[in-house]
Amino acid sequence: MNILIIGGVAAGTKVAAKLKRDNYNHNVKLLTKGKDISYAGCGLPYYVGNVIEKEEDLIVNTPEKFSKLTGVEVLTEVEVTKVNPEEKTVEALDLKTNETSTYSYDKLVIATGADPIKPPIEGIDLEGVYFMRTPEHAIQLRKAVESGEIKRVVVVGGGFIGLEIAENLKAQGLNVCVIDMADQILPGFEPEIANYVEDRLADEGIVVFTETGLEAIIGDGKVEKVKTNKRTMKADAVVLSIGIRPNTGFLADSGIELTPKGAVQVNKKLETNIEDIYAVGDCAFVTNLITGKGAYAPMGSTANIEGRILAQNINGESLTYEGATGTAVVKLPGINAGKTGLTEEAARKEGYDVVTVTITADDKAHYYPDSAPFIIKLIADKSTKKLLGLQVVGQGNVDKVVDMAVMAIGLDAKLDDIQNLDYAYAPPFSTAIHPFAVAVNALLNKIDGNLVSITPREYAQGKAEGYKIIDASLAPSIKGAPYVDIAKVHGELPEIDKGEKLLLVCDKGKRAYMLQQRLRNFGYTNTLVLEGGRIFTEVEVEA
Questions:
Q1: Taking the CB of residue 20, how many other CB atoms lie within 10 A of it?
Q2: Which of 221, 50, 33, 38 shows the shortest CA–CA distance to 139?
Q3: 229-284 pLDDT, tens per residue?
Q4: Which residues touch 156 (CB under 8 Å, ≥6 apart)?
Q5: What does the CA dihedral 105, 111, 112, 116 come to, rounded to 10 degrees?
């Protein structure tokens, strides 16, 4: 069987390698526009920051090495310009010789990935404007940094790659700011989580300007200034990371069904609407595991999973890719962030009876060196107790918490199913009750009415207006608020009326919850606990 694969980074090479591994008799040919294949796209910011020292470490496999290892024929610098489904051929331009060739296939795999969005603005082609999609992009930027010609950088785009680039440039001693036209950084994260991360970035010297759109890049031959809808900033370089677009322009007249934004429509077997043509990776529009609806999930992890499944199907299996949950994790200066599943807003739009909880818990035993808080938000369906999503920030290993939620969501688990499992515990790794389980317990308490609380988002919206703030911290911490030490509460509080609306606040939320439980015994039934505590939400008493 002649199998032709267009694209050779993550998904394309995974399909090719698995095809030949399981059936070496296939004739597998891979065409790719670039010079390199199988490169570490997600590692590019860390090469710029000198965390990854050598250029060659960005290349997982050279074309020659990959061919010898797998038996796949690899043709680099060959750009496919047209697909002819009726003839089962593709037309391609050799970028080295400028000659056009035709390649035939029995099965065609489209794995062309996505290209960075290049906005049509003044100055976009000036020297000092960089993208971050290929090894060459990272190599060029690092050379400029090491030459000393760059001191001030504006990063356009507050997504994962943009923020990782900002972190790595800042670590090289550069003056870095980030602009984003959206009202928050970290698209796909809850607004309150994104705002918390933004504050931590400011603490590390990376200033973020949201609702700030790029209008022009100004300079005489090279970057000198960046013009936005709010201000003009001096800059020696601009790094554009404002999103990606599926690289599918060559499919325009092929009859292959595309989404309005250009991604290839596939079913759960990763088949397109045309027989014997498939699509995987950043160019494909797949399925959301939770909703069953279409989803765009351009991640290296999903690309590899899709590629492996497709190769097995071409080899005669009948497997399905049930979909992505939108899982992501990012390392930033002083803080890490991760997410999976639906956000609160997305869950409401899907018609779920949404309930959420936000907790602050130690990431490991509090007495162990380097212990730090995790802030975890869970989203669930109140009626079924089905877990729908999780978001987490903290200095520790947030990926573990995210993966626990991925497993629970993937197995359609209810909160009760994951509440009392014996998660790994030792002081260097976790707390006796794992932070994930702490969050699950808190959410179940909230559903059952044992915890009556207000979320950080609701507090920011003013929904605690009319409530008297009670400082329930280990030691007095809120200026102007009455302080109540739970260790001394053994009866009614003469200074507080039982019918008064009370907002109980402590550092993490735990002592406030304990105080709420205690006060209930003495007839105080009009209390709210601020979820997550003062670590996550700034609380002030009005004078």
A1: 20
A2: 50
A3: 999 999 999 999 999 999 999 999 999 999 999 999 999 999 999 999 999 999 99
A4: 162, 178, 179, 180, 214, 226, 238, 239, 240, 241, 242
A5: 170
Catalytic residue among 42, 177, 283, 506: 42
3-state secondary structure of 511: helix
**Which of 531, 537, 196 minimizes the C-alpha distance to 337?**
196
For 188-209, what is the mean pLDDT? Answer: 97
Long-range contacts of 456-465 (CB under 8 A, 24+ apart): 456/192, 456/358, 456/530, 456/531, 456/532, 456/536, 456/537, 457/190, 457/191, 457/192, 457/344, 459/530, 459/537, 459/539, 460/192, 460/537, 464/503, 464/528, 464/530
Does position 543 have pLDDT exceeding 80, yes or no? no
Widest distance between CA atoms in the chain? 90
pLDDT tens readout for residues 336-365: 999 999 999 999 999 999 999 999 999 999
Number of H helices and E strands in the chain, helices first, is: 14, 32
Q: Is 42 a catalytic residue?
A: yes
Q: Are 243 and 159 in contact (CB under 8 A)?
A: yes
